[in-house]
Write a structure and sequence with these properties.
Structural class: alpha+beta
Oligomer: single chain
Helix content: 10-25%
Largest sheet: 8 strands, antiparallel
Length: 325
Amino acid sequence: MNRFLPYFRPFQGLILFGLVLGPIGFTLAVNGQEDPAQKAKTATNGFTLPKLFSFAKEGEKKTTPFPGVEHIERTTNTPRQLTQHLIFLDPKTPNLRILSTRPEREGNHPPGTTKLETTRAFLERTKAHIAINANFFDNGTEAKKKGITRLLGLAMSEGNFVSPWSADNSQFMDAIHFSPQGDIRFLERPTDIGDGYATLPATDLYTAVTGHARLLRAGVIAVKPGADPNKDLNPRTAIGQHRDGRLVLFVVDGRRPGGSLGMATHEVAQFLRDRDVVDAIQLDGGGSTTLALGDGKGKGRVINKPSDFTERKVGNNLAFSFGKE
């Protein structure tokens, strides 16, 4: 028997775990009882994960990646295992540059056409410090094949017209706008969009991106659980304004068995309101959800965990550069 021991040593931890856990499960079954940890299950798209296997250490880690910028990484097991990231920054920071993806100029393309690019690649190319994915876009096979896409909703980048409102799609009706001075304004698509760049209220457009759902309006949740068209649990990206005037960027990871499981849209709205965010919109989510930080010199890193297990190329990114430090 001793000559077989070397073959069992690599598995002795698993064997011991089974010997310990097996009798526990057997005892519960015999007694006709259900382990409360097993009873409280976490549901998401296509699978359930017992809370018995939620090993995330709960808490918040706060850092200051750049002067005046606060980053909070939050992990929790309630109501399910989640990893969330919050960025707080002052949009009126001196020399702050706020920009998004520019339109594709090469070739004869319709308005709203951009090149597909990962959020990190955009951050590094523009030598920015913070970047997040923005507008929804056509992510079909043809777009991926050609490397270009069509944005859904209004988009502007430092005075450059990128994408008009989607006249034939009423889902993308809320945008966030930044003036050259860093003033934040939430815009809506008017009934008469005119040339495609009319807004409510009327605004001299500079930099703007559009979301799918208005989450908060003047501190009131704009989407209710019963009417939530995005009630499935998914990775989410949102942008908003705090009560004190700071800009808030939010991402939550999802679709990761053994990791963060995602949130519904109304949950994101509730979470942000509890953090004193007064106005917010939801941007593109799912596999697009990405938050990246850079050194301002062309090198960056993704700080969340995209659900595709790789970085997705998206149609529009929003970046923040603090100039010389």
